[in-house]
Each structure stands twice: as C-alpha cells, then as structure tokens.
Design brief:
202 residues, 5-stranded antiparallel beta sheet, 27% helix
C-alpha cells in the first residue's frame, strides 16, 4: 500500500495596505500568505506542483483566495511578491534528490561489480560461482573445481530455479555432482553473451 497525495507549506507572508476589502468595503490593509503545494509519497516531498496565495482583511477578518480578489488588490499582491521573489524551497524536491542519489549509487555499484567480475574472468579461482541461465526463464550455478592453463573444470548444479532471487537457495554443496570442462574463452563468451549473468567469489 502506497501513501501519496499533495500538501501545502507556507513559504512567504506579507501585507498590502490601502486596499478596499470586497467584503466589508473598508479601506484597510490585508495580510497575505503564499503556500507552496507539492506532491508527496510516504510524506516525503517529491516535487512542487505550484503556489497559491490567500489574503485576510485586517478589518473583517474575511479570508480570500487569490482568484476571489479584485484586480487592483491582485496587482498589489503581485508587486509585493515580486519585491522579494517567492522561490520554491529546495526541500520540496527531496524525493527526486533521494532517487537521484540511489540511482547514482546503483550505477557506481554496478560499475564496481563489473570491474571485479572482469578480474574474476581474467584469473578464475577454485570455488568461484558462475550464475547462469540454464534454460529460457530458468537459472542455475556452476562452481569452479579446478583451473588449468587455458581451461577450467566446473561442477554444475543439478538444481535450477525460475527466479534469480532464488539462486542462493539451490547453491548447496550436495547439488554439485556433474563435472564439465570449458575453455576460458568459452566462459568469457558466455559472460559476454549474458548467459553467465553474475560471478561470485567468496
């Protein structure tokens, strides 16, 4: 269940003087407040969706939406707001900032993983685990048993799973029984072709 919606936060307050209230028709002053509206997910602000202004007559205390005010008062309000530009607070972009950071971390982590796996391919070691697609939509593992000059022997897992998330559940010593031989070039090609999608070294 995802909690999302919109909220508003006060970002500026001020006053306009010498205006005629459209309700009590008194020449008076009005306090106004500018609210920034934003979308949120789990109460974390994600992005702004506009601003709204309300004004209150200091005589009759009637509150007006910006659109309810006569043009002369709207013009004064606009001038007041322009004197000190009403900027959208950076915190209203918090959610987008969090996503950007997570994406950056993911990209960095992926790059580091690729570097490590390139090293594992270049110099395989006994015990390395190759996670691969055994059949379309099914996944299994191979464990390096021995490394020769241009080839290596691997024990292939007898079990397979239909989810990559379940691969660790079948990575058990008793499941490795059949021994196969591959050239190092074949292993590199399988990795390049995404047949082997992950290499793990303990």
């Amino acid at each position: 269940m995802i909690f999302y919606g919109t909220k508003a936060s006060n970002i500026k307050n001020g006053q306009v003087i010498n205006v005629d209230c459209p309700h009590c028709e008194t020449n008076t002053s009005m306090n106004y407040a500018v609210f920034g509206k934003y979308a949120h997910v789990y109460w974390i602000p994600f992005f702004p969706i506009g601003k709204t202004t309300v004004a209150e007559c200091n005589n009759c205390k009637r509150t007006f939406e910006y659109s309810e005010l006569p043009q002369p008062i709207q013009t004064k309000l606009d001038r007041e707001k322009e004197k000190d530009a009403v900027k959208t607070p950076i915190w209203m972009f918090s959610g987008l900032g969090i996503i950007a950071v997570l994406v950056a971390i993911g990209i960095y982590s992926s790059g580091e993983t690729e570097k490590k796996e390139a090293e594992y391919l270049k110099a395989p070691k006994v015990g390395d685990i190759y996670k691969f697609e055994s059949n379309p939509g099914f996944y299994s593992t191979m464990k390096v048993e021995s490394v020769l000059k241009d080839s290596l022997h691997v024990l292939v897992n007898d079990m397979e799973t239909n989810k990559t998330s379940g691969i660790n559940d079948i990575d058990k010593p008793e499941n490795y029984k059949e021994l196969y031989g591959y050239s190092k070039e074949e292993i590199r090609k399988m990795y390049k072709d995404k047949k082997i999608y992950e290499i793990e070294r303990n």
